[in-house]
Amino acid sequence: MSKIGETWRRVAMLLRWGDAARELAEEMRVHREMKESELCSGGTEESEARYAASRAFGNAMSLQECGREAWGWRWLEDFAQDLRFAVRMLRKNMGFTLTAVLTLALGVGANTAIFSIVNAWLLRPLKLKNPEELVSVWRTRAEAPRQPAYFALYHDYLAWASRSRTFSSLGGTFEQNYALTGAGEPEGIHGAVASWNFLETVGATPELGRLFEAQDAQRELACVISHNLWERHFGSAHDVIGKTIQLNRRTYRVLGVLPASFSVRVLDRPFETEVWTVLTRDTEGYGPQAPSPVAVIGRLKKGATPAQAEADLSALQIQLNHDFSDEPNDSGVLVVNLQQDNTRTIRSSLMLMFGAVAVLMLIACVNTGSLILGRNAHRAKEFAVRVALGCSPRRLVQQLSAEILAVFALGGIAGLAIAFGLLPVFVAWSPFGVLPPGGVSLDFTVLGVTGVLVLTAALLFGLLPALRALRVRDADALRTASARATASREQLKGRSLFVALQIALSAVLLVGAALLISTFAKIGAQPMGFHTDDVLVTDVALPNAVYGTNQDQTLFCQELLGKLGRTVGVRAAGAALTWPFNVDGLTPLETEMQQGLPMGQLPRAATFEVSPGYFDALGIPLLRGRSFEARDLPGSIAAAVVNDEMAHRYFDRENPIGKRIRLRYVDQLSPKEPWLTVVGVVGTTRSIRYNQIEWDKYPAVYTSFFQRPDEPRNPADARTQTMFLYVRKDTTLNANAIASAVHEMDGDLPLGNLRTPGQIVSELRSQPRVRAVVLGAFGGLTVLLAAIGVAGVTRQMVEQRRRDMGIRMVLGALRSDVQMLVLGHALRLAGWGIAAGLILAIGVARLLRGFFFGISAFDPRLFGGVIVLLAGVALVAAYLPARSAGKLDSMVVLREE
Amino acid sequence: MNRDELLPGTLHLLILRSLARNGEMHGYEIAKFIQQISKDVLQVEEGSLYPALQRMLIKGWVKAEWGVTAENRRARYYRLTPAGKKQMEVETAQFERVIGAIAQVIQTA
């Protein structure tokens, strides 16, 4: 007999359930009628005949049920019935249902939302061919061997690409912003220059046209554009292939268009690359011996691991360090999976959020469990009656399970709705400054995980406590009040345990939130050393094709700053070639007194190339001497300005003005830089390092880029020099004036966004802020849930001890005594919970140390605050039930039984 | 009425046999037929007849179709399928083996 056929017929029965059941009933009715008419013809009275037929046939309904049982769907039929019953019971007790469902919905919603973010960044594979084979390659500094410190040098990349044994290919790229001109407004677009095999290495396939091939490195300038740029700029025209576009005033032929889904990021670059150009021999600074930086992404050979690749490249690098004199001498090689590399800065925040939301979910579950316990405590009598009337315990368990499943399912569905609503909010908030490739969505992985989560929660926190409640001898409950009291006391104990656990978990979350919020407050309270609000910062990229010499750039800048200085509302204007907000690496330098020290022992400082007017524009105070002036030009003595930090650290108490210093870049074995004379001392500003949260003071040396010797650049090169503009304004400044000043000089220069230093700092602080905000929000929710838990358990306690309290009052206890009894119970409960929670919190705080700054992980004020808060919440939540206990009428209570 | 209990598991066999003999029958006819042939010894309880028929439908041993009786009543007629015939042979052989064995025991003991 074929099992498949049988299963198929079963399913067919289920699908036409109504019809099949009707047919069966009809058939059995016909049978009874035939029997009746036969009995009639045999001489029996008609009514008697029907009775006899019915008797012979038994209860029609139950017989039909037996017939249907043959179809093998009895369990489903029962389940549907139980579910209908459960929904009826839940509707009768809306208070319980709403609280339980909302609690779960909050937990599931927050969990699903956070998980979908974690999934999008960390779990969902990159949409590239065999993404697990892709790795990033970085150079590291000795003190942090697992953190990228330097880009690879181009000549090293060439050597790796030709000699490594673990890679099937290695591609190199560097960021290059382009001004797209020749068609309307000049547009600044994010671009990258890449070795011809880069796109092939990451596994891109063109949507239109072709990608680069080896010969393109020798041919005319060419580019491959993103789907987005193709749409925006070319209206998705199919004849774009072979057309030319103007990038940084040079003509590029469009070879291909990448598909919309293509995304490859270097580090955590917060944008998609819109135009890829190919690295050629003409690319300035990228000859075969060039020490210029490239980001390297490689595809591992089948079966090779990142660790093997790292060993492979490290071995090659030892030889390269020997062959080339321009290598950083404190550096190793780091090979990391590309996806891990892309998420380095946000990974810890994501994991923290995930941990916190897991605790929140646990709290929500415990809370629901305690609600269910409380509800079933009320129903001990109902269960007892039902068992006494012949309901089998098994059936009772089934019905109870259906009820609990219904609660959890409703909570899960409501939670999904919440998550669905939260995701757009998160995307709009964009706390990481960038979305994962492919966006954040509730995909099947997320839905599946949520489903499993809800089912597991229902099992652990719904069914287990419910079954435990049933074990209490139900029949006894019917008999005596005292037996029932024992049973419910046991349940109260169980519920109290749940609530204490919930408070403990809340304490953990709150301590974490308090630590992270005060970390963020500490970071925010640090003086930055520059003005954050009345300054506008923007950037302009000068193409080498037009501004081919340092002289050209200086002239442009001098004229622009002059124009800006005459603009209404501008107090000061300055420019810089460097960005003062992040500092990545310090440069060794020597002073005249300390010549001859080995490189490793030289003092180090951050270096900034700025223009006259820079300090005024950013509001950095001049403490001694003078700042850069118009007379500091290539012919005159090379001037330097140092900051206060440097003066203190490297010149002791001596006046640094007039002293001479010389920069010693790590790649220069013998000194090449000129001696600089210190002419002034300015205030110290704070900067942040990559992937750190701490804003620190570093010794700094400023030079004027107006003093650079005049070196011509290759005019065939399409690269640019980015110049940052700083304008300190008053309220009368029309922000458009900055763009017009630039465009009066060169209408084809695209201008970056205008931002204040405050906005930039705020973006760079996003990680600690995200952590503080998310944990703060979860902390708030958890306080709410704790209040619900305490209120519920206290109300139950009051109900169960009515008699006890009544007797006390008869014996002379005051209302306030009874109230104190109730509040005392709640406080004791909270006390146990808080004590356990703080012990846990100390462990968690140790774990999270890396997230804190400027505070002790065991700050007694924070811990004290959490204790007071939770105890206060417990008191407030217990107050209403306590008041109702105080209002008990002792005579009524005592007559109840 | 004095009713002898059916040997457990024989109801399927009785139904299969009845259908094999008469081709198409509705439920009441099956019950009636078994009762008559066994001279009122075997009474098929209607309460077990229909569950058995449903089980056999699911197993694919019988097919059911609505039809009209001689008295112009709508009734559901059952008919053996090839799988049902095979099943009948299997069950018959099994039944005979068991009955033979029981008879042996009764006679010799």
Structure explained in plain terms:
The complex is a heterodimer of chains A (897) and B (109). Helices cover 53% and strands 16% of the residues of chain A. Chain A has 897 residues and is of the alpha+beta class. Chain A folds into four domains: 2-69; 151-327, no CATH class; 347-525 and 766-896, no CATH class; 535-755, no CATH class. In chain A, the strands form four sheets. Chain A has a six-stranded mixed beta barrel with strand order 4-5-10-7-9-8. A six-stranded mixed β-barrel of chain A has the order 15-16-23-18-20-19. In chain A, strands 13-24-14 form a three-stranded antiparallel beta sheet. In chain A, helix 12 runs parallel beside helix 23 (766-800) and helix 17 runs antiparallel to helix 23 (766-800). The radius of gyration of chain A is 38 Å and the shape is elongated. The model of chain A has no long low-confidence stretch (mean pLDDT 86). Chain B has 109 residues and is α+β, with helices and mostly antiparallel strands. Chain B is built from four helices and three strands, in the order H-E-H-H-E-E-H. Classes of the chains: A alpha+beta (897), B alpha+beta (109). Chains A and B meet through helix 1, helix 2 and helix 4 of A and helix 2, helix 3 and strand 3 of B.
